[in-house]
Amino acid sequence: MITRLAVLLSRMPAPAWMLLSLVFGFAFGTMFAGGAASVLDGSRLLGGVWIDALRMTILPLVFALVVTGVAELGMGSDDSGRRLGKRLPVVLLGFLLVSVAVASLIAPPLLAAFPLPPNVAAAFRASVPSVAPAPIVSIAETIRTMVPVNVVASAAQGAIVPLVIFALVLGLALSRIERARALLVLGFFRGLSEAMIVVVGWVLRVAPVGIFALALVIGATAGLGAAVALAHYILLQIIVAVVLILASYPLVKVFAGVSMWRFARAMLPAQAVAAGTQSSIATLPAMLASAERIGIPERQATVVLPLSVAVFKVTAPSGALLFSLSAAWLTGVEVPLSHVIVAIPMALLATLLVIGVPGPASAIASATPVAIALGAPLEMIPILLAVDTLPDMFRTVSNVTADVAAAAIVTSPSPERMNAESSGTRESMRVS
Known about the structure:
By secondary structure, the chain is mostly helical. The chain has helices at about 1-10, 15-30, 35-55, 60-75, 80-85, 85-115, 120-125, 140-145, 150-155, 160-175, 180-205, 205-220, 225-255, 260-275, 285-295, 300-310, 315-330, 335-355, 360-375, 380-385, 390-410, 415-430. It has 22 helices and no strands.
């Protein structure tokens, strides 16, 4: 029995370990509420060290990814981008804009409609002592602070927005100088980003320990109110994912000429597989079958869909924004409108730059710059990431639906044309 349990535990995926750590951390924290100050102090120290280890990789990772991504795009060295053609990148970017627009319109009012009890918000704030309310400034002042007057000072202060702007300018400038010299500089930044990804992987290996310590402190200070707050966050993620699923239907109708009813019937098998596997890659065969049902030629579907699955997740920018807004909501940090406006393009950029970052590291790498731009506490992100496995089923369905919808828009299948082709094929078979 013990051996079987050990084998089962060894086969558990990382998200399951994170969720278990969160549950047990809350449970033990509730038990230690009101006593055992030494246990709480030790857990606070352990969780803080783990967060700091994760935080130290973010600025160099984001900076290196922005520089290399912009420079390679400007130099025209992105072979996969050329193979995508001219329409697919535009369509995918359009879906990402819809995603971040949905999150920015839905999340703030839903969070504001359910304010946390004062004692729960105070308990969350107590568990992350670094939290400081974002200063309320005008949009004009916010734009001015985005100019990186002193890049070193911006990096030292953790000001992600001016640092990213400088990285954009640097990457664009590298694409304009002699190729050999540019590649020499880009080699350094590629190595830096790859090294930071390795470090993030090391930190995430001990994520269950860090999340357990953070959850223990929150459970001891917030009690069952923390569980209710996290349940509200899960519901918010599900609502946004469902809205994104429904948004794909009229987009296909308007831009591809496929009726919503036909698209819905064709997508049902792929959506069922996506919900069961929670993997877009595993759903690819079912997606190809769905594409055939709505009239996408096989030779085009076999090119467009694998590329879309590899580089595109419609829920990525909305997820990064939801992470950050929810982290601020949990700790009672007021987010000014100007900060939200700055965070929207940051979410889009972060999503595009972490395509090659594996596993949970991509979620952290995309959410952290947005959280910094909003003034939200980074300490809450691992907690939200741990419970994020629950709404993942809905997000996978949303991603799969958007992938097929994007393929339909790019190829513009015509039901009349496909029916005519089918009739022509049947007629030729009768003649022969």
